Amino acid sequence: MLIQLRNIEKAFNQGKPNEFWAIRGVTAQFEPQRITCLKGASGSGKTTLLSMIGCLSRPTSGRICLGGRVISGLPERFMTEVRRHTFGFIFQRFNLIPGLSVLENIMLPAYPLGLPYKALRKSARQLLKQFGLSNKADNPVQWLSGGEAQRVAICRSLINNPQILIADEPTANLDSKLSREFMGLLDELRHSGRTILISSHDPEVFASTAVERVVEMRDGMILDATG
Length: 227
Known about the structure:
Blueprint: E1 3-12, E2 20-30, E3 35-39, H1 46-53, E4 61-66, E5 69-70, H2 76-86, E6 87-90, H3 102-107, H4 117-130, H5 146-158, E7 164-168, H6 176-191, E8 195-200, H7 203-206, E9 213-218, E10 221-226
Parallel strand pairs: 3-8, 3-9, 6-7, 7-8
Antiparallel strand pairs: 1-2, 1-4, 4-5, 9-10
């Protein structure tokens, strides 16, 4: 599903003394079934841009189109539906909820869809098996290692079978070996037909052979795109 951005701008505290423009006139498109990395230092606008693509926030101006459909101007409840059915998210600090089991954390994003509990539980266990974590299903997430937590975060992002995965600085808390393993897992997911957008300033990510396109950002603008 083609993602198109047309003259996207994003302001925070607009009209106030501390007004800040995080994104400045970004026009770009992201091809389906590819791994694209937004590369740039902290504050370059990577996370803000991904949050708008993933329907977590709206641009101040400009249009975001998904498969030819404008999604940036949809009413909130429709944006929520697009987000739940189209996108899976992998966050920098995993965002797993302590006190809940691994299985419960994976199932959480699917609850609003109203799926039968038994079917949802079965899907979550299948994902754990796929990523070699079947024996961790009933463990509290705080017992996991960094690499295990990252794989659980991937399972959670896949529970609604999204077409597009968004990963925001996904290797920030991983060592080099685990970062390479993570990129290998993303490459497998891309081969299964998913589109993957990553933000990172980690060379293990943007220099990975799994990444097919690198888009460099600075000060809320795209400087260069390769691939």
